[in-house]
Amino acid sequence: MTTHPSERAGQPETRGIDLVSDEERVGRPRQLFAVWAAPNVSYLCLPVGASLILMGLSLPQAIGVILVGNLLWVCTGVVAAAGPAAGTSGSVISRAFFGIIGNKPVLIVTSWLLAPAFLALNWSAASVAGIGLAGQWGLPDSPALDAVMICLIAGVTVLVAIYGYATIVRLYTALSVLLTVVFVVVSGYVINAVDWSYAPADPLHGAALASAFGTGFALIGSTALSYTNSPDLARYLPRSSSITSIAGWTALGAYLPSAVFTSVGALAATSLDMADPQAALETLLPGWFVPVFVVAVIVNTIANTGMTAYSASLSVQSVWARVARIPAVLVIGAVGTAMTLYALLVFDFLDSVNTMLQLVVVITGPLMAVAVTDMALRRNRYDGARLLGEERGGPFWYRGGVHWPGLLALLAGGLVSLMWVSTTFFTGPLATMLGGVDLAIPAGMGVAALTYWATARALRTIVTDSPESLLPKDTILCTPTSS
Q: Cα(237)–Cα(243) distance, rounded to whole angstroms?
């Protein structure tokens, strides 16, 4: 079994969305555990968990929402199994859902626009932590220091994305262990300070409790639903890899740290003022450990955003095939850096970004539902060569390059989700009727899945027997490209 030089740890990965041949497939599904654990041993889990207590939930209620909401990582795991089946990235596989042409606007919205926003949000949080540590060390607070800190974090992130898959697999295995050790220590100090007798001053009942449950579920579930890029990290696995193993190791790697450390955030909120989570936690930690914690926050951010930048570069290629993967990483990194600098140095728009991310489930929920439904309908059979070939008249050209069942399902699910969403910025009419109960995720995903299943079956655009039967009988297929 041979390995392309660019797929070796410590060397930049030059491969982009092009097909990974069976001879180049390496690894086992269990390596996905660490790949997904490292980004989710996350500082951001702590304030998210605390926010559930601030909503008025009791501790058992908050932990229940955390355990249930994180189950949506199963969707991320299931979708990951398409990577080895097709041998290419998720942004190419989605051509099967939306068509060669119809896929492009979806990627522009979900990856080109949202990915830099995710980078900016995470880099801003990490930069604030790093700037605070620099202040404790006596460095004067200044815009120049802020800019240097942001550029350093962004630069290391971009390097991780440039070195790519093999380096991510090797590096994240070590990082998952180191970050877990640091956050377990932090968790120990938090647990020691927990007010186990805590109860909300005004316990929620009826519609108010249902509203808090819905909002909390949307907040927890939005993270898992944003990772439709999971095939990108699984595409180098052998085609014969077990679907159950791929889905299980991916979901478990993300679920465990997310559930545990989000619960720690909820525990912390019983006795600490988590309005400023970093400052609150530092009151519990010994002075010598504070720098270790801050460095861990920054390293986790790099692990999280490195994966985001890597997948975003593949999405750029999927839309604009002429650009190489490494220049695409640089473009995404530059846009994210500019947004972060603007956020911290010119105008504080992070509240707006947070609200936007709450609304992201309107897109990511239906998109994930379409992806899972398509996998079920096709029995996870994807012709990677033809997906990459962009053939006119090919099995993924459909009608004019658009697979209307996919786009209709995405739009229908998004519209229904928008009507059920409930945020501080916008509350949909159906959510308003029920006192602010947020059902954006189940409603949007359910409608998207049902619409896709019904329309694809009615139009007979998906048949599972062979790639040649993916279209009606009068379709003329081009000769498939060599794999």
A: 11
Taking the C-alpha atoms of residue 470 and residue 432, their distance in angstroms, rounded to an integer, is 42
Give, as one character, the DSSP assignment of residue 115. H
| pLDDT per residue as tens digits for the range 377-410 | 999 999 999 999 888 888 899 999 999 999 999 9
Would residue 455 count as lying in a domain? no
Q: Is residue 187 part of a domain?
A: yes
Residue 213 in any domain: the answer is yes
Domain that holds residue 285: 30-383+391-397
Q: In this predicted structure, what is the pLDDT of residue 394? A: 86
CATH of the domain at 179: 1.10.4160.10
The Cα–Cα gap between 416 and 444 comes to 5
What pLDDT does residue 324 have?
A: 87
DSSP per-residue letters across 141-175: P-HHHHHHHHHHHHHHHHHHHHHHHHHHHHHHHHH
Residue range 18-45: mean pLDDT, rounded: 91
Which one-letter DSSP state was computed for residue 399?
B
Confidence of residue 291 (pLDDT cuts 50, 70, 90): very high
Q: Look at the chain and report how many structural domains it folds into.
A: 1
Q: In this structure, are residues 165 and 329 in contact, taking their beta carbons and an 8 Å threshold?
A: no
| Angstrom distances, CA of residue 208 to CA of 54, 342, 439 | 13, 37, 14
Tokens of 303: 């692990």
Across 222-304, where does the E strand assignment appear?
Answer: none
Residue 179 has which token pair? Answer: 């970050």
